[in-house]
């Protein structure tokens, strides 16, 4: 009943566009009158048909009233700089999410602090607010509505974490080394890779953690970074090579910047997991394109992995403009030229375009992302996609490896690379490993 009171369209009975909360025998939508008088849902304040929230007033009017109070600059009016946020929030198609969000005490506190100038309306100002998860969501809304300039939220989160981590390091020497390492290596590398993923931030944090742990390890042995020995390094890695492998970044930086003498860093091969067998990949692919019990967004994501060998980081950045329809054919732009989309996946993909998730709230009402996320202006994260697919039994890394190895056996590696957005060297190496027969194929335009 709640969803019915949020459904609008053309009534099949009278042909009028209005609230269609009734259901016709043939499955069509009916307005309240044609459905037999389900009740009067006209808002007493704005005159629109909608689900009422209190005293005959619809949710949108109640949300507008609450936002006006929270964003009041003290003069009885919404702070001018926050008007774009005010307009974006009060116009969401389903106001219940906005009402739930603004009912939290910490959200109300933060909005009032920004509206009354108690906290600067800047990225640095937002860093003063808590809790950080709620502030991250608010920051995305402010950037999406144009109140704040764009910034990589993952990088901002890392910088906030670093500002809390460094003062907790014992000793001025280690603290100074970690500050230099974080500033001149970790953060510079992250800045070059924007937009960042949560996995990249997780790795950056682990590099800082392990660098601090290594310096503590030296201190326990009565040494510093400048006078450590090869035995100290070997002993560190002997305690667990895989868990401490990310210490490589700190040691290489320290040697390049003359903070420590040259040492040999242990290395062990960490090969990728065995790819799926071809029959396993095809079985999963059939499930993805035909199983109606699997959510549509997961079927599309799984097919992009298993059929086109796409990494989740690239899938998350796809937009609706990457799905092309020309002369009755469907294509998807993964590289140049676009890749053809065969049936039945073409129908699945087109159906999904009309019912993408997370487009009914204030965060992504006009999102062009193929997989819109819950945060304003942001796509679904690769981590979220991976968890969803893993829980449904779709192994992403093994499935992608199996797909790309099969593809380079069917076509020249350079052609596969260009169509799917891979580097020529990557597909050439995979083709050689898989025993491909296209080694002498020359890349480039063969139409001349």
Give an overview in words.
- The chain is mostly helical and 448 residues long.
- 48% of the residues lie in helices and 6% in strands.
- The chain has 20 helices and nine strands.
- The protein has a three-stranded antiparallel β-sheet with strand order 7-8-9, with no helix packed on it. Strands 1-2 form a two-stranded antiparallel sheet. It has a two-stranded antiparallel sheet with strand order 3-4.
- The mean pLDDT is 88.
Observed structural traits:
two-stranded antiparallel ribbon
Indicate the proportion of strand residues.
Answer: 5-15%
Helix segment tally: 20
- What's the gyration radius in Å? 28 Å
Main sheet: strands, sense, barrel:
3 strands, antiparallel
Ends apart, CA distance between termini: 63 Å
Structural class: mainly alpha
Average pLDDT confidence is 88
Shape: flat
Secondary-structure element string = EEEEEEHHHHHHHHHHHHHHHEEEHHHHH
Which range best describes the helical content: under 10%, 10-25%, 25-40%, 40-55%, 55-70% or over 70%? 40-55%
Give start-end ranges of low-pLDDT stretches.
none
Strand order of the largest sheet: 7-8-9
The number of strands is 9
């Amino acid at each position: 009943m709640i969803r019915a009171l949020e459904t609008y369209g053309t009534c099949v009975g009278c042909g009028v566009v209005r609230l269609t909360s009734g259901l016709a025998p043939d499955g069509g939508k009916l307005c309240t009158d044609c459905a037999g008088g389900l009740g009067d849902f006209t808002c007493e304040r704005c005159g629109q048909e909608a689900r009422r929230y209190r005293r005959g007033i619809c949710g949108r009017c109640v949300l507008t009233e609450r936002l006006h109070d929270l964003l009041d600059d003290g003069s009885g009016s919404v702070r001018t700089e926050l008007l774009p946020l005010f307009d974006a929030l009060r116009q969401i198609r389903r106001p219940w999410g906005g009402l739930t969000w603004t009912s939290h005490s910490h959200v109300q506190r933060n909005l009032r602090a920004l509206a009354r100038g108690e906290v600067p309306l800047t990225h640095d100002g937002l860093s003063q607010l808590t809790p950080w998860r709620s502030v991250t969501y608010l920051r995305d809304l402010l950037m999406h509505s144009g109140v704040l300039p764009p910034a990589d939220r993952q990088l901002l989160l890392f910088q906030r974490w670093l500002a809390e981590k460094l003062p907790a390091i014992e000793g001025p020497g280690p603290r100074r080394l970690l500050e230099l390492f974080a500033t001149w290596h970790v953060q510079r590398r992250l800045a070059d890779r924007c937009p960042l993923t949560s996995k990249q931030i997780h790795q950056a944090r682990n590099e800082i953690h392990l660098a601090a742990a290594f310096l503590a390890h030296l201190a326990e042995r009565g040494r510093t970074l400048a006078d450590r020995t090869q035995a100290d390094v070997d002993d560190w890695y002997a305690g667990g090579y895989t868990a401490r492998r990310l210490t490589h970044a700190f040691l290489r930086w320290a040697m390049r910047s003359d903070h420590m003498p040259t040492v040999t860093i242990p290395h062990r091969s960490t090969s990728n997991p065995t790819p799926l067998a071809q029959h396993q990949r095809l079985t999963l692919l059939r499930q993805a394109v035909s199983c109606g019990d699997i959510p549509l967004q997961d079927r599309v994501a799984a097919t992009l992995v298993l059929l086109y060998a796409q990494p989740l980081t690239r899938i998350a950045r796809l937009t609706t403009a990457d799905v092309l329809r020309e002369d009755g054919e469907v294509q998807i732009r993964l590289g140049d030229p676009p890749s053809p989309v065969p049936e039945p996946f073409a129908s699945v993909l087109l159906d999904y375009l009309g019912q993408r998730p997370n487009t009914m709230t204030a965060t992504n009402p006009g999102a062009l992302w193929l997989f819109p996320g819950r945060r304003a202006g942001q796509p679904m994260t690769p981590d979220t996609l991976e968890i969803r697919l893993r829980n449904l039994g779709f192994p992403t890394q093994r499935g992608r490896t199996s797909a790309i190895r099969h593809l380079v056996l069917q076509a020249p590696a350079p052609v596969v690379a260009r169509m799917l957005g891979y580097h020529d060297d990557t597909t050439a190496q995979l083709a050689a490993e898989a025993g491909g027969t296209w080694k002498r194929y020359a890349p480039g335009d063969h139409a001349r």
